[in-house]
Amino acid sequence: MEDVAPSTTRRGLLAGGGVAAVSSLAGCFDRLWSQAETPGPDQISMSIKAVPADDDPIAATIASRLRENYSDAGIDASHEPVAKAELYRDVLLEGEYDVFVARHPGYDDPDDLYGLLHSRFVGEQGWQNPFRFTELAADNHLETQREATEDDRPAELVELLDHLLQSVPFTAVAHPYRITGARESFEVPSPPRDALGYVELCAHAANGPRDGPLEVGVFGEGLTERLNPLAVDRNRIEGLLDLLYDPLARRIDGSYVPWLAESAEWDEGGGLRARITLREGLEWHDGEPIDADDVAFTFELIEDTSLGEVEGGIPAPRFRGQQTLVESTDVVDSRTIELYFVNTTRAVAARALTIPLFPEHIWAERSELLTDRQTVAVTDDNENPVGSGLFAFADASTDEEVVLEPFDAHALRGTSDRPSVLEGFSRFEGIRFQVAPNSGAMRDLLIDGDIDVTASEIPPGSVEEIRDASDVSTTMETTDAFYMVGFNSQHAELGNPNFRRVCARLIDRQHVVSEIFEGFATQAKGTPSLVGIHDDAWEYDDDEFADPDPDILSFPGTDGSVDTSQSQPLFQDIGYNYDGGQLLK
Amino acid sequence: MALIDVLLELTLVVVTMLVTATLVIVGPRNAVTALREFRWRLETCLLSFAALAVVLLLRWSTQDVVQRLERNVLRNNITSYLFEFDRALFGTDPVVVLQSFQTDVLTSFFVFIYIYGYAFLLLFPFVAYFALDEMEELSMLVLAFTANYAIGLLFYTLFIAFGPRNVDPLLFEGLLYEAFPQSRTLTNEINQNTNVFPSLHTSLAMTVFFLAWVTREKYPVWVPVSGFLAISVSLSTMYLGIHWFADVVAGTLLALVSVYIGVNYTIDGIVASARRFFGARFESPNTDKE
Q1: What's the sign of the alpha-carbon dihedral B227, B231, B236, B237?
Q2: Which of A85, A94, A133 is nearest to A113 (CA)?
Q3: Fewest Cβ atoms nearer than 10 Å: which of A110, A244, A332, B227?
């Protein structure tokens, strides 16, 4: 017995062990099979794109903070710096992004939101709905504010903004101050970022007069590469193309002032239309006359840069929001054109007059196709831009400078019958942009007295140094521009408005303003500013927002850092789960 | 300061350093002898220099094409991986740790090392090896530099990466361009801010150091001097917020590979074997016909 017992025990053990092993293996296989067949939820991942600090230290830092906060909230977040031109290509042309951070120049009118968000633009490139955002309710609001009478429009806009606050296709973080450095003796009535800013600078009695050009400092990569007003995938000097290409009318202090147009007669009976008369003796920079055909051509070109060559058309990546206000055009004679508008009001329709005019004799042949969905018009470098502005392009033979010369044949030069901003214009012989490699080098150009004024944004960190330097001064003012965080609605999770809304909360706007902007910005706080309209610029006080002091986008944490005990419930409330701190799909 | 002023200052400082080092390490007598017999020395390594010139010319002339290929076609942005690599390795950001020791003196030191020390470190071996009795070491150096540039160029085309200072200027300070913004006019001529992985500053500096070790019998003093400079250059790239730790590691590996190539191969050998290879290819159909 004693001999046998251990052997049976061994055998029993072996058998038992074998069974156990097989069954546990079977269990293991079962688990493996079921895991392979129905994989568990993965962690949500998102990449955040923004320009590198060389291009914009603010955008880069916001993106970096966003990455940190998303990681803390359990998202597998990565931050991908991409050069400005490539960021625009990824976001505006190809829709290849999850989240991006960028500086938006700001709206002229709330109707800019139509181009930015309407689902009819979802298949188009450029600043037309880069979020791939499609919502019937939003479309409705965008359309009704266009159609509403002047009295009804404020209420419609309030409804639109209330809706966007819930739906957050993008969110604004802050409105930066515009900081301009200038020679001590210089007056900067408004910062030189658009044509009017330059006009005022060149006209001010304190500046010049000088036989030479106004010397302007800018910085950045590839600024002189593509001087094409239709292109969006390039870094550019703000305001340069606005100086070269004039529109029919310019918006000055909220009202539309005829520019290349001499007059606009509006007729509201039976559909809105406007009869535009051009100024006499208008010329392009190459000496060709500007006529009503060029105006009609401009609207045609923006609607379809292939000029009918391609079925369905290839719309321009810019100005579509304004152009879609015009239903059709009718050239009456060489100086007169009738514009027929869609169902809208005069206040909104006038925006169509601010599109820069394109010379037909140059752009007509650019309707040629480059690839299936690209025309030459959009991709051409436009090396010698022929426009109609007060300044003509003279030279950009090196990467370091762009020279504009006065265009003496311009209808608004040498006449007294002209908009009042032009009084005293111009006390300089043209404009010369000096391109510095980075913001520090631009600052040195100013301090060394090589430039009169800076036109690229001065980072907050440099302000002190400029103020301390002798013979230079800084001016500062609030702007319509804003930093936005954009969400790709075609991302698996970001397609969900509830998810977007929580993501839009995960940036501490107050902390961003105090730490990243060093106080040189206004925090997005009220409903208008969270959608990109400066709270102070909101003119319609009569109508109340649903939530006048919205904390719907308040930050779940303190001092810029997410508190997971606050952020996790936010995601759980909208149906998401956590596993070991990871947010699951 | 314009580009020309920056260049002038650089030349002045580096030439002074070179002359001093030549007098101390090479010795005036050897230097004079070498200058007197410059003809055969140059002739001996002409081919190596030609190869280096070709690679540099290629790099310079294809800058636009390469940038377009890199950014518009290949589009491999690896910045976030470099960031994660550094964090995973140390549990914190090594660049931030280095920058936490920041003082004005240290910043000035590293800016000096990054620009002037680096230029000196790269140029002095040419003088030193030129003064030797044989040109073997000089050929090694030139071939190793050529390999550095050629492989570096390949990596820069394959990968887009931005350095720490470009990712988050509050977390990683861009000390170089803050302390010395004009240097950007200089570095812009040679490089773009997307050329980060690997660090060519590190790889070239380390190449000089490794070769100093290989030739330690000829110039024993040069080993510690080049070692100090090379390590300082590597540290400076991180301290100044230009490179990740991962770039420095990759740069050091690239230096090892380049030195291996420099020591074990010669340009004549490579040209001869290439000729044999292509010769065999092109001649075989001819022989068939005959």
Answers
A1: positive
A2: A133
A3: A332
Q: Which residues of B touch A61 (CB under 8 A)?
A: 168-170
Tally: H helices and E strands in chain A? 19, 24
Residue-range definition of the domain harbouring residue A282:
246-388
Which value does ipTM take for this structure?
0.86
For A234, left (φ over 0), alpha (ψ -120 to 50), or beta?
beta
Number of Cβ atoms within 10 Å of the Cβ of A88 = 25
**Among candidate residues A448, A470, A492, the one where a domain is terminated:** A470
pLDDT digits (tens, 9 = 90+) for A411-442: 888 777 888 888 888 889 999 999 988 888 89
For A124-137, the pLDDT digits (tens) are 888 889 999 999 99
Choose the mutation target among B73, B166, B190 for the interface with A, i.e. most A CBs under 10 Å: B166
In a domain, A80, yes or no: yes
A54·B71 Cβ contact <8 A: no
- A250 and A127 within one domain: no
Asked if the structure places residue A3 within a domain, the reply is no
Contact between residue A37 and residue A31 where contact means Cβ atoms under 8 Å apart: no
Q: What is the DSSP string of A305-365?
A: TTTTSSTT----SSSHHHHTTEEEEEEEETTEEEEEE-S--HHHHGGGGGSBP--HHHHGG
Residue B169 and residue A57: Cβ atoms within 8 Å?
yes
Environment class of A105 (CB within 10 Å of its CB; exposed 0-12, middle 13-18, buried 19+): middle
CATH code of the domain in which A535 resides:
3.10.105
Q: How would residue B289 be classed by pLDDT, with cut points 50, 70 and 90?
A: very low
Q: List Cα–Cα distances, A176 to A53, A355, A462, B267, in angstroms.
A: 16, 26, 15, 58
Spatial separation of the C-alpha atoms in residues B99 and B175, rounded to whole Å:
9
pLDDT at A118 over 90: yes
Domain count, chain A: 3
Q: Which stretches of chain A sit within 8 Å of chain B by CB?
A: 47, 52-54, 57, 60-61, 64-65, 78-83, 85-86, 89, 221, 437-441, 443-444, 515-516
pLDDT of residue A6: 47
CA B231 to chain centre: 13
3-class DSSP string for A167-191: HCCEEEEEEEEEEEEEECCCCCCCC
Domain-terminating residue out of A470, A493, A511? A470
d(CA A219, CA A53): 13
Average pLDDT for residues B102-118, to the nearest whole number? Answer: 92
Domain assignment present for A573 = yes
Comparing CB atoms, the residue among A57, A78, A441 nearest residue B182 is: A441
The two structure tokens encoding residue A333? 């004679």
Specify the long-range contacts of residues A468-472, CB closer than 8 Å, at least 24 apart: A470/A184, A471/A183, A471/A184, A472/A181, A472/A182, A472/A183, A472/A184, A472/A446, A472/A447
Residue A511 has pLDDT above 80, yes or no: yes
Residue B156 CA to chain centroid, in angstroms? 14
Question: Which residues fall within 8 angstroms of residue B90, CB to CB, at 6 or more apart?
Answer: B97, B245
**Tokens describing residue A390:** 């007060």
Average pLDDT, whole number, for chain A? 88
Angstrom distance (rounded) from CA B24 to CA B77: 46
Evaluate the CA torsion angle A44, B159, B242, A454 in order and state its sign: negative
pLDDT in tens, A562-582: 999 999 999 999 999 998 888
Residue A34, in any domain of the structure: no
CA dist B107 and B105 (Å) reads 5
Which CATH number goes with the domain that contains A412? 3.40.190.10
Same domain, A487 and A533: yes
